[in-house]
């Protein structure tokens, strides 16, 4: 091949030709951790980066390849990485109409009367302020793969948002537009949120745990002390906890499937799917995944607590005492029914736990996103209800020969496992009702957009859904 | 900074300037769940959205910011979110040459003689129909992060596909072009598939489980009943299951490594890697990951079944009976060989399970994609074969002192663990053969593109691969 | 709608119009696995693909839709998928100024004096060589979703890099620019790396395991043999290992939190966060995640080893012997303190393991990327230190009544659990010091950019960080 270079012919890329060989220029205010990390990434992605600083010679280290200027010299997108709006900002920005992206966050909620970005817009009225990218941290920019990370934008100028969105897309970020600058406050609260969707499930779990702990403490430990003078308080640590955990786990699992059943009954009653559910049901449905994961956590604890039973001091002591007492008395008969019952009990527990773990795995983001809609529904609905059935049976077998004994009802209170079977049983009965062919058909038709028409009402003939 | 706004200077972004400050317009037919969710997302991403409806005032709620029009007023990309092709479609589409994206799906396979998209193309011959995005569900569009989700397109017009692809890319979706509109049928079947790649492994698992269950039922339970009159049917629940699970798990793990070994022998025999493998081997190799994960599931069940052994009624009873019988007789001697053997047996099982779990973790999509090719190969090949070796040794130790006893061969049948060691042993022997230096060298050369040349045959001198 | 087609009106897409309906042309050299898989993907993404081969009729199969040409006929981006630089390359490239992407990798490190891409650039001086995409394997291109996979580019021509980057972005890849062609060597080493960040943690784990194994071997097994003539070597397999694993796990968990504490003290001492940490501390901090995951692996082994304790032959034998010996002697009294202590010990272990698993789950890429910065910090710092506290307490309870007995100090050496508590105790004491209000306030201010000013030193008034 000759060394001759032809520059005519097809352009290499429309973008490349439009902007010339010179890469686009971006400006960053602030040489803190965030500013430096952002600059580093932008340089790696192929942009030119300039830092704005009024004292270019004492502003700390900037990434290799970036320059420092006392004032922005040309029109470009500016990233404000100062944590506070500085009075030097208008000077730094120079005389061009700029796009100013505000990445700042607050340390606490509601410490300022207005959003930082709104304040900034008042400070530099000639700029198009875009709030956004503020969920990125210096650490993520330095270490993590950004690909697919969701960032939010808001601002009053569509053109400015488009410009920022282009930069974010080049960084492989996934951009969501949240509307006008009035949404800035909401965006500034994003990095401060601490598991908002986990709060309700965790509170429910805490409440149930506390209730059943004290209920069983009274029934088991205090009852034994008051009525028989036995101090069995050592049981609190393992035996009692191992009764509370499965109870809470089973109730939370059924609470995870109850709202879906309730929603179906709402739709049946109203005869349409186009009316909103009550607010509490909506919130409940949105935290089903978290309810299920908390339930899985309790089931996991229950499993481990069960595995260590035989190495506990108290259990070994009981076994040895039993042997020493029974020594010469009547032979210790093998009860086949007991063997069948306990083994079935364990098997149900194991299978339930296995399905529980499968459900948990399928709710991992990367696993879930690889499933088709039908597969996801199959796992979360069919497999989920099967898990609930198996775990409920596990509970029923536990009490199969106890519920008729008077000794079960200490102080006229039902044992914990009976209480915990109430909610799952209701959920399963309701679900069974929904599976009746006539009910099922109506629900399916409603879900496909059909409505129970009432006289004098007319609607568009096309009711469409792809769900 | 003065409030003065300069609009000359560098353009903010080529796209922004080309399309003007006005964002692109998209049209959606159908205000069902899918139509509304899609519109919501498109609005968030910065598009203008118009819903097409012949009765704009009674078509149900549309997302805030979207308009409803009785007919498409300008040229734009149209998303058909009706589940059925409506006769009003041609009217709705107006008089422009439109790109019509068909998102519809069927409720079942093969209920229509032709693909929806093909029917649509006949209905509106002037439009460029693109089938695609139909794997998106209303739920995903509302809640999930779309980033990186794979969507498929097909259509006869490259220009139309490009336009749709641009929209999908803006939504952070990952687009795969599947060719002409004749592929529409295939695309419409995607959302209906239910774990197609899991079917073969699950069937193999089911078959093996059934076979070994009945085999061991006959050998253990029925044999004891017929020959000795013992009813030990209670063992079915745990003891028998805990023999079947490890057997199936080990066989499936070896089935997971067998096709790779077979493929190497095929290549050795043929002296080239450029000839296709037989069809059955190809299909087998494609479901290796699923085979391994099903094997892990069985290993997990085996582990939990083992952990609960000591709390079983039958085991406790046996222990107590043993103590009571042995009471005054000869002292119960400690057998060091037995202690070593059983402990080694357990340790091999634990290490095998640990490696199994590591393999399973590395096949999580998000973990696997973070590995380099060499790392992935290291884990799946080196670590995988190590797991197979350890699990096979676990099996051999189990039978170390039993295979010579006549009582092992009840009714002249070999015990289950012997049967299950056949396949893994074959795989390991074949793998050892492949690791012999002379064989290994030839296989490596073949994999790098070398071919055993035969007389009169000539090929391009450059055989390249980066694998 | 009339069949009439209007081609005026809004363009369908700026790109589509610029390039015309004809999709962009790309060229691939090499029809090996990599070349074919890449071509397949590019065709699916909507490009036209041509293979360059000097013998078009004998170059092996190419994907359907691709052509084979003896020389590149027009200007386009060329992908070099040969594993070796062929002398026919300059001829193949034709007479245009081309962008040549070099995807080649080496089989081993440092087998050639210069990077392949640099050699290629000398071979075809008229082309703009871009090194990159070489972390893609044929397997990934065929099977995996590419979305979000990170690829690296380097090259001397910004325009050429932009062109390649555009193709990669269309393939949903996430592109990172690594600068000029001099970085090619580094890029060529990427696919050869084998868990570089895991090396240090694994070496530490191996060292600690070996040390404690031999230490406990001497103290337990050899001591018993020498002093009492007991051969208890069978304990090596399970009992000894189950002492070594928790020790190594706890030490590694504390090593995972030590560097963070040290870094705070460094910052306190220096009064600024703008000075770099010593090199060893930086490297230590970068492998904290791996340290933690290795610690989790050991904790997992410890848990399973504990679960199988009661089914071990030695343990059953000891239990039976105990019963038979104690038979008629004094009754076996129930010690409530012992019951409380052992149960607390187990509960601490279980809770610690539970939190350990939570920490491990949150370090899965897909889970971690869904967390906000504050959530991630909460889990890794608050929950992490809580885990360390609980596991340390687990260790202390183990030795609560043993540390005063002379029999504990065999051969005047402290037992293993004492040694293993040293590092975690130090970390926790240092962390407590940092939590003192006065110290905490200073550290927080330093982290927000404040510096202990020394006379004569002046810095920019704006210290900004969003961390």
From TrEMBL, chains A, B, C:
Q: Which organism is it from?
A: Myripristis murdjan (pinecone soldierfish)
UniProt keyword Transmembrane helix, yes or no = yes
User: Which residue windows are transmembrane per the record?
Assistant: 200-218, 244-269, 290-315, 345-371, 383-401, 416-439
Topology with respect to the bilayer: Multi-pass membrane protein
Which Pfam families does this UniProt record tie to the protein? Ferric_reduct
Underlying gene: STEAP4
- Cite a single GO MF annotation: ferric-chelate reductase (NADPH) activity
KW Transmembrane (keyword) present: yes
The main location is: membrane
Which protein are we looking at?
Answer: STEAP family member 4
Enumerate the Gene Ontology biological process terms: copper ion import
Family per UniProt?
A: Belongs to the STEAP family.
Domain (Ferric oxidoreductase): residue spans on this chain: 247-379
One GO location term (cellular component): endosome
Q: Where in the cell is it found?
A: Membrane
PANTHER family for the chain? DUDULIN-RELATED, METALLOREDUCTASE STEAP4
Which terms are listed as keywords in the entry?
A: Membrane, Transmembrane, Transmembrane helix
Species lineage, top-down? Eukaryota, Metazoa, Chordata, Craniata, Vertebrata
């Amino acid at each position: 091949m000759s060394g001759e270079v032809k520059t005519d012919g097809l352009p290499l890329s429309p973008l490349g030709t439009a902007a010339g060989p010179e890469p686009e220029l971006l400006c960053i205010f602030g040489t803190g951790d965030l500013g430096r990390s952002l600059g580093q990434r932008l340089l790696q992605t192929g942009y030119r980066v300039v830092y704005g600083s009024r004292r270019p010679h004492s502003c700390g280290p900037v990434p290799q390849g970036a320059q420092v200027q006392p004032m922005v010299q040309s029109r470009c997108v500016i990233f404000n990485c100062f944590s506070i709006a500085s009075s030097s900002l208008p000077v730094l920005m120079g005389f061009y109409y700029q796009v100013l992206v505000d990445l700042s966050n607050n340390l606490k909620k509601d410490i300022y009367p207005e959003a930082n970005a709104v304040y900034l817009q008042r400070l530099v009225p000639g700029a198009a302020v875009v709030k956004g990218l503020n969920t990125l941290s210096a650490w993520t920019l330095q270490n993590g793969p950004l690909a697919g990370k969701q960032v939010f934008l808001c601002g009053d100028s569509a053109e400015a948002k488009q410009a920022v969105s282009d930069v974010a897309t080049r960084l492989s970020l996934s951009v969501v537009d949240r509307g006008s600058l009035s949404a800035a406050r909401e965006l500034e609260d994003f990095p401060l949120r601490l598991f908002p969707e986990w709060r309700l499930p965790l509170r429910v779990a805490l409440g149930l745990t506390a209730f059943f702990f004290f209920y069983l403490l009274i029934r088991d430990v205090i009852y034994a002390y008051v009525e028989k003078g036995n101090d069995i308080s050592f049981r609190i640590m393992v035996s009692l906890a191992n009764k509370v955990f499965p109870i809470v786990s089973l109730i939370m699992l059924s609470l995870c499937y109850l709202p879906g059943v309730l929603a179906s009954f709402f739709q049946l009653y109203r005869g349409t799917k186009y009316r909103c559910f009550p607010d509490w049901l909506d919130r409940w449905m949105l935290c089903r995944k978290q309810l299920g994961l908390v339930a899985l956590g309790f089931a996991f604890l229950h499993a481990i607590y069960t595995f260590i039973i035989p190495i506990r001091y108290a259990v070994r002591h009981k076994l040895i005492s039993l042997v020493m007492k029974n020594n010469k008395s009547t032979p210790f008969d093998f009860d086949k029914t007991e063997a069948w019952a306990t083994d079935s009990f364990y098997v149900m527990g194991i299978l339930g736990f296995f399905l529980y773990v499968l459900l948990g795995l399928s709710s991992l983001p990367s696993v879930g996103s690889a499933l088709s809609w039908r597969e996801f529904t199959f796992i979360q609905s069919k497999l989920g209800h099967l898990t609930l059935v198996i775990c409920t049976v596990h509970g029923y077998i536990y009490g199969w020969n106890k519920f008729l004994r008077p000794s079960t009802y200490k102080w006229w209170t039902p044992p914990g496992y009976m209480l915990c079977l109430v909610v799952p049983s209701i959920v399963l009965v309701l679900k069974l009702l929904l599976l009746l062919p006539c009910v099922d058909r109506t629900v399916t038709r409603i879900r496909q957009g059909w409505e129970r028409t009432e006289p004098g009402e007319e609607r568009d003939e096309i009711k469409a859904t792809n769900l």
